[in-house]
């Protein structure tokens, strides 16, 4: 649905995502309220990530790809750790 000037209707209205109130889409900009956790475990606001509406798809896909790469790396490190642990236990059982 378009209004005069070619702007989409939802670009003119604030939209809160139902799953997270810290994410809004207003005036064609996706805003994500970011938080950090201090050493004591307390959360605090650390800033706002602002993504232009036209770039949301590319940025989200990039973040997802990065998260998957991290997950794969952590899984391979975990597998390597399990292999090393099993090798050490075999060596110990052979020494007995």
N-to-C order of helices and strands: EEEEH
Helical content class: 40-55%
CATH fold name, please?
Answer: Nuclear Transport Factor 2, Chain: A
Oligomer: single chain
CATH class label: Alpha Beta
Topology:
Elements: E1 15-16, E2 23-26, E3 29-37, E4 43-52, H1 56-95
Antiparallel strand pairs: 1-2, 2-3, 3-4
What's a quick, concise take on this entry?
Helix content is 42%, strand content 26%.
Would you write up a description of this structure?
Helix content is 42%, strand content 26%. By secondary structure, it is of the alpha+beta class. It has a single domain, classed as Roll (Nuclear Transport Factor 2, Chain: A), CATH 3.10.450. The chain has a four-stranded antiparallel beta sheet, with no helix packed on it. A hairpin with a 6-residue loop joins strand 1 and strand 2. The protein is elongated, with a radius of gyration of 23 Å. The N terminus is likely disordered.
What labels would you give this structure?
96 residues, alpha+beta, Nuclear Transport Factor 2, Chain: A, four-stranded antiparallel β-sheet, elongated, disordered N terminus
């Amino acid at each position: 649905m378009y209004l005069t000037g070619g702007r989409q209707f939802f670009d003119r209205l604030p939209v809160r995502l139902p799953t997270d109130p810290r994410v809004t889409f207003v005036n064609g900009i996706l805003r994500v309220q970011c938080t950090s956790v201090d050493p004591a475990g307390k959360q605090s606001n650390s800033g706002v990530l602002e993504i232009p509406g036209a770039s949301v798809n590319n940025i989200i896909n990039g973040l997802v790809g990065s998260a998957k790469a991290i997950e794969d790396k952590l899984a391979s490190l975990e597998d390597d750790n399990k292999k090393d642990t099993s090798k050490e236990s075999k060596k110990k059982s052979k020494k007995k």
